[in-house]
Design goal:
Elements: H1 2-19, E1 24-34, E2 40-50, E3 53-65, H2 70-89, E4 97-102, H3 105-111, H4 123-133, E5 139-143, H5 151-162
Helix pairs in contact: 2-4
């Protein structure tokens, strides 16, 4: 079953990459984690792709709270990653497309909710995505299954656990 999930995730991400028209893509791989004591960690990687050539440009691990939920750790990772990508794209607005790749379906569903009825924990991620959307041509948000052998998602997970 993990190989089916891995194949599905790779195909989905490739389809999104194939729809990108600018030739410049920033992939944001984010993850949150909570240990058995409730300490939260967040981690992310940013991969730049220009005309098919890929390179990692950022790798970050950070604390996500002494007492955290999995959701709050996921939000912390997404907000940190999106802020870094926004700093990159604001210097050249309209030249990049961004893909936020997360294994948190709860985060994706929360971002789709009505901002006036949104869980307060979601607001920082919602605001960060709105800010990023001002400097990229398109923001794609992709859900992938966790722990299925997807290398960059596993890297983000390791960074989150170290946070």
């Amino acid at each position: 079953l993990p190989s089916v999930k891995l194949t599905a995730a790779l195909e989905c991400i490739q389809k999104v990459r194939d729809t990108c028209l600018t030739g410049k893509i920033l992939e944001i791989w984010s993850d949150g984690s909570v240990d058995e004591n409730g300490h939260g960690g967040a981690g992310y990687l940013v991969v730049e792709q220009i005309d098919g050539k890929r390179s990692e440009i950022k790798r970050q691990s950070m604390a996500a709270g002494i007492v955290a939920t999995s959701f709050s750790a996921e939000v912390t990772a997404a907000v940190g990653a999106i802020a870094d990508v926004t700093n990159i794209t604001e210097t050249s607005p309209g030249q990049y497309e961004a893909i936020l790749i997360t294994d948190s379906l709860a985060l994706i569903e929360a971002l789709k909710s009505d901002p006036y009825k949104m869980n307060p924990d979601t607001v920082p991620a919602f605001n960060a995505t709105r800010t990023l959307c001002r400097s990229v041509t398109t923001l794609h948000i992709v859900w992938v299954s966790s722990h299925c052998g997807l290398f960059l998602n596993d890297q983000a997970d390791s960074l989150a656990k170290a946070g």
